[in-house]
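Input structure tokens:
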């Protein structure tokens, strides 16, 4: 099939792809920016080549990447997710230069990348779309007409938008008048084209998506759904498969529709058809033409390896399973470990990882791009690791997730772990009562609780310091406790007893 694959990415996903290649006996080539020379993907790949350009845009440097592919004599290029993964021009150039692009064909990427067009195709394939504009909006007048027809609130979206960016909720004509041109300009600036459209805003929805796999011979299957309703700023934080609201009948009905949509566009490789689930109905929102961050939960419940499947399909192998071979076993959940401070509105938290210990044990998988001593940069996606947990049922998954989160030590950078520790104890989350607005509603409570816990730990440290008669004065900590939040700066996240011990040792 392939001898050598270049991975045009970094971090945990580059590591994930290297692992699949290793198992398939394929050599790997990593690329890295100046600040990534000690990254895990560089250490694990068979060969690694530096990118000369500015670290911020290095992984987008098509020319340089193709030059390295040529020099390293690779057969194929895997783009991972993000960066160039959904850039049709890149996919086209890769093929033109004689390499195989591990992903769908450029025209599929292009079609799905334009959400206005994708909506039309989806509707023709029999999928319900969210009421809204039928094409791109040409004027404010047209925008007002559509919005009044479908009813406020509406959401303005950039046709080429992605990553939760380029969306704006609008509540009335006045607001629409005020932001219409701004939204167009933002779309142009952010995504190169000022094309925008409108959808009715569907409150209290669930985000549910279907995984599709298609080979080059017209065989297409779906691998069930993932629910990704726990989000911040329209970006996923926690994903699970299956979803509590999808039964066997619904799974095959909606899965079949997603397959039909993919079929209609001659889709190949892996892809995801995303829906908003509202009032018992599934509304198409978009198709993602790449491996998703959350592919791991599907792998855990189906027992399949999506990255290997991607490589095999790109290598022209027909699928060796059909729909009847696919069944979901048990339950899986993923939490995205981001280098962000949940107490500071998810502000990036770059810096050196001074202590690092991953959880393990039954049903636990960690896909990580970091290690102890690694310097996390704020130039890239804040996702540093994914904790993916499997259990026989949802309740076993939640208890496993809870104990794994408690085992996970990452300091001194701030991460989303303390937030997840609150979510896994929340009765609404435990009962599956979640929507895309869940976190907005719950965040003030979670924040308060995290802060309170940090103060308690600070107090515990102060007491421990006093009792062990350490040669430092505990007073400033105790004093700060009473005077408010400053203490938080002194007490890192990762509130385990193990951490407390380490902290004390360092103080000593
Ligand atoms: P992106 O491509 O930027 O990820 P999506 O269209 O996939 O954008 O939407 C991301 C998230 O935005 C959804 O999961 C949902 O939370 C929210 N969203 C998008 N469209 C709507 C809508 N019409 N009504 C309510 N929420 C929406």
């Amino acid at each position: 099939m392939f001898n050598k694959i270049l991975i045009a990415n970094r971090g945990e996903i580059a590591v994930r792809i290297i692992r699949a290649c290793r198992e398939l006996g394929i050599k790997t080539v990593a690329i890295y920016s100046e600040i990534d020379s000690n990254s895990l993907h560089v250490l694990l790949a068979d060969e690694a080549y530096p990118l000369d350009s500015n670290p911020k845009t290095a992984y987008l440097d098509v020319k340089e990447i193709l030059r390295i592919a040529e020099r390293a004599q690779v057969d194929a290029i895997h783009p991972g997710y993000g960066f160039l993964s959904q850039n049709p021009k890149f996919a086209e150039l890769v093929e033109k230069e004689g390499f195989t692009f591990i992903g769908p064909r450029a025209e599929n990427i292009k079609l799905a990348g334009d959400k206005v067009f994708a909506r039309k195709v989806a509707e023709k394939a029999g999928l319900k779309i969210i009421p809204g504009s039928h094409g791109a909006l040409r004027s404010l007048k047209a925008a007002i007409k559509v919005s009044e027809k479908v009813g406020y609130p509406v959401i303005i979206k950039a046709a080429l938008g992605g990553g939760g960016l380029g969306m704006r909720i609008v509540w009335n004509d006045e607001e629409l008048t005020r932001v219409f041109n701004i939204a167009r300009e933002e779309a142009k600036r952010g995504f190169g084209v000022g094309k925008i459209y409108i959808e009715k805003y569907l409150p209290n929805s669930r985000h549910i998506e279907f995984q599709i796999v298609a080979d080059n011979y017209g065989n297409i299957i779906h691998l069930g759904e993932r629910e990704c309703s726990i989000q911040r700023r329209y970006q996923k934080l926690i994903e699970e498969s299956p979803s509590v609201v999808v039964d066997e009948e619904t799974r095959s009905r909606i899965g079949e529709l997603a397959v039909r949509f993919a079929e209609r566009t001659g889709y190949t490789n892996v892809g995801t058809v995303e829906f908003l689930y509202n009032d018992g109905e599934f509304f198409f929102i978009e198709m993602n033409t790449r491996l998703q961050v959350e592919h791991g939960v599907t792998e855990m419940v189906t027992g399949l390896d999506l990255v290997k499947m991607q490589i095999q399909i790109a290598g022209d192998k027909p699928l060796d399973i059909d729909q009847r071979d696919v069944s979901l076993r048990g339950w899986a959940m993923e939490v995205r470990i981001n280098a962000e401070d949940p107490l500071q509105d998810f502000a990036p938290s770059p810096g050196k990882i001074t202590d690092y210990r991953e959880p393990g044990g039954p049903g636990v998988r960690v896909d990580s791009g970091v290690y102890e001593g690694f310097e996390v940069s704020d130039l890239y996606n804040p996702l540093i690791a994914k904790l993916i947990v499997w259990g026989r049922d949802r309740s076993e998954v939640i208890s496993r997730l809870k104990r794994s989160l408690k085992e996970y030590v990452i300091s001194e950078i701030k991460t989303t772990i303390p937030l997840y520790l609150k979510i896994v104890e929340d009765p609404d989350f435990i009962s599956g009562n979640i929507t895309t607005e869940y976190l907005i509603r719950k965040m003030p409570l979670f924040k308060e609780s995290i802060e309170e816990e940090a103060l308690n730990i600070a107090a515990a440290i102060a007491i421990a310091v006093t009792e062990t008669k350490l040669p430092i004065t505990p007073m400033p900590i105790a004093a700060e406790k009473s005077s408010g939040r400053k203490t938080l700066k002194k007490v890192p996240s990762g509130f385990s007893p193990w951490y407390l011990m380490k902290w004390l040792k360092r103080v000593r």
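The domain at 4-102 is CATH 3.40.50.20 (Rossmann fold). The two ends are 57 Å apart (CA to CA).
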